[in-house]
């Protein structure tokens, strides 16, 4: 895999949803279509509150050991909370929920120039081709798998630099559970929502927001001139607070920030002592209605 970099993602956890009703159970809860999960084909999705706010995100992939079972590549620090939330909805469903985070890990493989990687271990990142591939493996086998793939092992910092450069958020660093709406952090543009599937938790609010074009803020990459502001630094436009800085990379002077869309184009904003210049990545399509001021 010439030119590829790889890093274990130490912050990720793995849940296993098994049983004869595993897929139908998830299908009724999450934002994307579980029926699209197949060997080598993962689906990105979220679990929302009934009010349509973000709670958890994850990649759903097929468990090679059992046809109907689904593995969830999720935020490791909140894997236990996700398991408990899913258990709340279990009722009498013929489903088991198991946390395998101690034994299984996640590795990311990508190219710095963002060119797609059609082959390799695991599955293509369903959000963007430029994000490369991901694989869920026994932790003891990750090093050997990276070597077998012909990729160069690198740091997790390099992985975050890559995703920040592409403008792709990480839930553990860039989303605020129970506060953020999924469209604000670009789930609609990153293949995280199926607007044609059946009902799921929070569907009504999410669908209405999309239909009306009423997204007023988006998570965007920004160029920072000056010292990189720490996460949670407010962004100001004059005297008004118009956004918040989240994860950043000092080496490239770039960060991700949740910013009001009516102030994005041509704006120079401030965060602490730094100037902030918002950018719109090529994959993000903004409707004119989204830029209107509230």
Q: Any chance you could write out the topology, listing elements then pairs?
A:
Blueprint: E1 4-8, E2 12-18, H1 22-27, E3 43-48, E4 54-62, E5 70-75, H2 79-90, E6 96-99, E7 104-111, E8 123-124, E9 133-138, H3 142-148, E10 152-153, H4 156-166, H5 171-174, H6 203-212, E11 217-225, E12 234-237, E13 240-249, E14 254-260, E15 269-271, E16 274-278
Give an account of the 3D structure.
By secondary structure, the chain is an alpha+beta fold. It has a 6-stranded antiparallel β-sheet with strand order 12-13-14-11-16-15. It has a 5-stranded mixed β-sheet with strand order 8-9-7-1-10, with helices on both faces. It is globular and about 55 Å long. It folds into 2 domains: 4-168, Probable tRNA modification gtpase trme, domain 1 (Gyrase A, domain 2, 2-Layer Sandwich); 182-291, Elongation Factor Tu (Ef-tu), domain 3, CATH 2.40.30. The chain has helices at residues 22-27, 79-90, 142-148, 156-166, 171-174, 203-212; strands at residues 4-8, 12-18, 43-48, 54-62, 70-75, 96-99, 104-111, 123-124, 133-138, 152-153, 217-225, 234-237, 240-249, 254-260, 269-271, 274-278.
- What is the name of the CATH class of the largest domain? Alpha Beta
CATH topology of the largest domain: Gyrase A, domain 2
Number of helices: 6
> Any idea what the CATH superfamily of the largest domain is called?
Probable tRNA modification gtpase trme, domain 1
Q: Kindly name the structural category.
A: alpha+beta
Helical content band = 10-25%
Output mean pLDDT.
Answer: 94
**Straight-line N-to-C gap:** 48 Å
Output the helix-strand order: EEHEEEHEEEEHEHHHEEEEEE
CATH architecture of the largest domain: 2-Layer Sandwich
Number of domains: 2
Q: Please tell me how large the radius of gyration is.
A: 19 Å
How do the strands line up in the largest sheet?
A: 12-13-14-11-16-15
**Number of E-type strands:** 16
How would you sum up the global shape? globular
Estimate what percentage of residues fall within beta strands.
25-35%
Can you tell me the residue ranges where pLDDT is under 50 for at least 5 consecutive residues? 289-294
Describe the largest sheet.
Answer: 6 strands, antiparallel
């Amino acid at each position: 895999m010439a030119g590829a970099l790889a890093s274990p993602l130490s912050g990720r956890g793995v849940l296993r949803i098994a049983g004869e009703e595993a897929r139908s159970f998830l299908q009724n809860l999450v934002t994307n279509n579980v029926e699209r999960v197949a060997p080598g084909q993962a689906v990105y999705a979220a679990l929302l509150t009934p009010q349509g706010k973000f709670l958890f995100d994850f990649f759903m992939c097929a468990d090679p050991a059992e046809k109907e079972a689904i593995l969830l590549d999720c935020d490791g620090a909140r894997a236990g909370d996700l398991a408990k939330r899913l258990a709340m909805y279990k009722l009498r469903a013929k489903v088991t929920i198991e946390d395998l985070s101690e034994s299984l890990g996640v590795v990311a493989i990508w190219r710095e120039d963002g060119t797609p990687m059609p082959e390799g271990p695991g599955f293509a990142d369903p959000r963007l081709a430029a994000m490369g591939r991901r694989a869920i493996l026994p932790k003891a086998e990750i090093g050997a798998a990276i070597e077998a793939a012909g990729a160069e092992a690198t740091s997790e910092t390099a992985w975050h630099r890559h995703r920040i450069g592409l403008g792709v958020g990480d839930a553990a660093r860039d989303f605020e559970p129970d506060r953020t709406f999924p469209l604000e952090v670009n789930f609609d543009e990153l293949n995280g929502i199926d607007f044609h599937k059946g009902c799921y938790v929070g569907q009504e609010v999410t669908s209405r927001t999309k239909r009306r074009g009423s997204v007023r803020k988006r998570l965007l990459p920004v160029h920072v001139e000056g010292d990189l502001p720490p996460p949670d630094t407010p962004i100001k436009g004059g005297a008004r607070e118009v956004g918040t800085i989240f994860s950043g990379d000092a080496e490239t002077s770039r960060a991700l920030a949740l910013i009001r869309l009516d102030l994005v184009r041509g704006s120079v904003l401030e965060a602490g002592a730094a100037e902030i210049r918002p950018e719109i990545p090529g994959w993000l399509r903004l409707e004119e209605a989204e830029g209107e001021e509230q």
